[in-house]
Amino acid sequence: MSETAHADPRRGSLLIIGGSEDREDDMQILERFIALCGGPDKRIAVLTAASRVPERMWAIYDAAFGGMNVTSRKPVHIASRAEANDAAMAAEVAQADGIFITGGDQKRLLALIGGTGLDEALHAALARGACIAGTSAGASAMSAHMLADGKADLHPEKGTVSLGAGIGFVQRVVIDQHFSQRQRLARLLTVVAQNPFLLGVGIDEDTALLIEAGGGIEILGAGAVTVIDGRHMVSNVADIRNRSVPEMVDVRLHLLPSGSRYGAAGDTATPAALSDFLKIVTNIA
Amino acid sequence: MSETAHADPRRGSLLIIGGSEDREDDMQILERFIALCGGPDKRIAVLTAASRVPERMWAIYDAAFGGMNVTSRKPVHIASRAEANDAAMAAEVAQADGIFITGGDQKRLLALIGGTGLDEALHAALARGACIAGTSAGASAMSAHMLADGKADLHPEKGTVSLGAGIGFVQRVVIDQHFSQRQRLARLLTVVAQNPFLLGVGIDEDTALLIEAGGGIEILGAGAVTVIDGRHMVSNVADIRNRSVPEMVDVRLHLLPSGSRYGAAGDTATPAALSDFLKIVTNIA
């Protein structure tokens, strides 16, 4: 949650996964996570606190990471804020090489860990050089402004989405997941209509946005990442009633398919319209 | 189809309807059509040629327009190109005050009427001052470049949409209908990725884009109109394989809800990003 407390230069990377990543076949995204952690001999923690069935979540990733010969893997089950403030647990998380945040409900996750020792430990691990991955709710939780609820269906509708305070690894964005599969463009447009300060980032299932320590980004997996930039938008959203569809003129949309890479040495030049997005997401807390 | 043959100043208006317009309750869009034609005592023709069940189509609009006390209403059933070249029929269409083009299949419609006397008569009627309305297939048929087939589902995919030659009342746009209800953004983005010359116009069900003779536009009905402008886009579409998802950076998106009006005296100022769209669609053939 802390937006200012982590002034250390960040050395780790973020892997933001749109949910339903392959856990049984080629497991491209999970394999990449392990590689980003430094390989299968590194210490991997699986944070299950977003889920009401944490043992079931752990069983899934225990099997997947076990199949990749990750020997040092363990769950972090958190059932209360007191547990999230356990100093020994937090110290262990801060020393992990990789932390995987499972799906579930991002509001549950933040209610349990927001502002706790575990929250600090996650930031400390990222600053130290760990890779932090989050899928579905674990992806949405990564931004400072977190999509909490949203009902917009066919069209953007004023007053139908609400934000909360996320973990805050990334600033000035809001992250949605299962994006194309659950047709969530309307709710992401609703967020941007009311919060043009934030860039909307919609991540498809079995797809990840990798934010590298070195300042590059990459899209990997099966789908695409959609970026919605409303900073140039002309809109009447301030004047209309709740539940009305806002006028939104000049929204900038970027569709970044799997395989796209920007910002690192050897990449194709970043289009000018994307360079702001790159600056914003790579300047992670 | 003629893109250059109609140099007369246009005096009529176009009502481009996204399908499934209300035909039984308040019939807002159909009532507006009749008003644009000059009222219920005017001559209304219903062109059913897009449909394989023309009598059923006529029965629907016969009932709807009858309920509005339109006395001079008649169907134009076209089953062959020979019929579409019938001079007496064409002369009658050219003199109509309003022409309503039903749904069905826009490829069927153009295969029957493209380049015929009826095609010319439609342009002549518009130039003379008639209102031409089209719904669903009848909406898609209105542009010079017509969306013929498209399969893109979750994402834009190179090579999955095809265009044909439409009636050509409007240039430089491609029109899709049932837009939000059938989740057609991906296929409209596919069109724009491969044809950045064209602006994509997606019209929701029971929603219409009215292009007025005086150069204004209005959105009416239940939903919204989505405009996709790819002219500033950076894309790799030229280099990727068929069926691949293109990178698309800096696509401009405009969401125009029902009630929006631009370009006519008394309207709110047209946002600069929308003025090109306005110029393009109001410069109808």
UniProtKB/TrEMBL annotation, chains A, B:
Database matches in InterPro entries: Class_I_gatase-like, Peptidase_S51, Peptidase_S51_cyanophycinase
Reaction catalysis annotation: [L-4-(L-arginin-2-N-yl)aspartate](n) + H2O = [L-4-(L-arginin-2-N-yl)aspartate](n-1) + L-4-(L-arginin-2-N-yl)aspartate
Enzyme kind, highest EC tier: hydrolase
Any Pfam family: Peptidase_S51
Catalytic machinery residues: 136, 178, 205
Molecular-function annotations in GO: peptidyl-dipeptidase activity; serine-type peptidase activity
EC numbers, comma separated: 3.4.15.6
GO biological process, one term: proteolysis
Superkingdom classification of source: Bacteria
Keyword terms, alphabetized: Hydrolase, Protease, Serine protease
UniProt record similarity statement: Belongs to the peptidase S51 family.
Described purpose of this protein according to its UniProt entry: Exopeptidase that catalyzes the hydrolytic cleavage of multi-L-arginyl-poly-L-aspartic acid (cyanophycin; a water-insoluble reserve polymer) into aspartate-arginine dipeptides.
Name of the protein described by the UniProt record: Cyanophycinase
Taxonomic path: Bacteria, Pseudomonadati, Pseudomonadota, Betaproteobacteria, Burkholderiales
